[in-house]
Write a structure and sequence with these properties.
This protein is of the alpha+beta class. It contains four helices and six strands. It has helices spanning 101-112, 125-131, 144-153, 157-174; strands at residues 16-20, 27-30, 44-54, 64-65, 83-89, 115-122. Strands 1, 2, 3, 4, 5 and 6 form a six-stranded antiparallel beta sheet that branches. The longest helix is centred in the last third of the chain and has 18 residues, at 157-174.
C-alpha cells in the first residue's frame, strides 16, 4: 500500500492503534510495538476504526459497508452528499451528573456498544470517482460541484459492461 498522505490521494484508511491517555495527552502507539507503561488506572484504549457509507437521500437507509456496492450516486449531491462515517471503538465514555437526560442516554448507548467517538465527512471526488468505476488517472474539469454532478450523471462502467456481456451470452445461446 502506498504512503497515506494528508492531501487526499487515498480516500479511506482502516487502522488500529493504542490511544494512551497520559497527562500530556495525544500519544498514540502502534499495536505491534511494546505497550507504554501500564498503570493501575487504565490509560490505554485499543482504537479500531470501522467505516460505512451513509445515504442521506434515503431516510430509511442505515448506510452500507464500504466493502459492498454503493447506493446510486445522483447528480444533485450538493444538497445531501453521501458521507463516510467512522467509529472509534474502546472504553472511555464518562457519564456525568451534569449531563442532560438525552446526553446520558446517548453516552450509555455508546458505552454499551464500545463506541468512543463518531466521525463523519463527505466523500471526496476521488472516492466518488472510484465508486463509479472511473480509472485512477481520469480527470474531470470544473468546480467540485460540477465534478460531483458529472459523477452523479455517469453510469458505472463495470456494471454496464457485465450486463451487456451477459445479454450477449444469452442471445448467443438463443440464436
Amino acid at each position: 500500500m502506498p504512503t497515506i498522505c494528508t492531501v487526499g490521494q487515498i480516500g479511506i484508511a482502516d487502522c488500529q492503534f493504542l490511544a494512551n491517555e497520559y497527562s500530556g495527552g495525544g500519544q498514540i502507539s502502534d499495536i505491534k510495538n511494546p505497550s507504554p507503561a501500564v498503570l493501575t488506572t487504565p490509560k490505554q484504549k485499543l482504537v479500531s476504526v470501522n467505516q460505512f457509507l451513509a445515504n442521506p437521500w434515503s431516510f430509511r437507509s442505515d448506510g452500507g459497508s464500504i466493502d459492498k456496492p454503493c447506493f446510486t450516486l445522483i447528480a444533485r449531491m450538493d444538497k445531501m452528499p453521501p458521507y463516510l462515517i467512522s467509529t472509534e471503538r474502546g472504553i472511555g465514555i464518562a457519564v456525568y451528573e451534569s449531563d442532560s437526560p438525552m446526553t446520558k442516554k446517548v453516552k450509555e448507548f455508546m458505552a454499551m456498544y464500545g463506541i468512543v467517538d463518531i466521525k463523519m465527512r463527505m466523500l471526496k471526488i476521488a472516492e466518488l470517482k472510484r465508486i463509479m468505476g472511473f480509472p485512477e488517472d481520469y480527470t474531470l474539469i470544473g468546480t467540485q460541484a460540477e465534478q460531483k454532478k458529472f459523477i452523479g450523471n455517469a453510469v458505472e462502467v463495470n456494471m454496464s459492461r457485465v450486463l451487456c456481456e451477459a445479454l450477449y451470452m444469452k442471445l448467443q445461446k438463443v440464436a
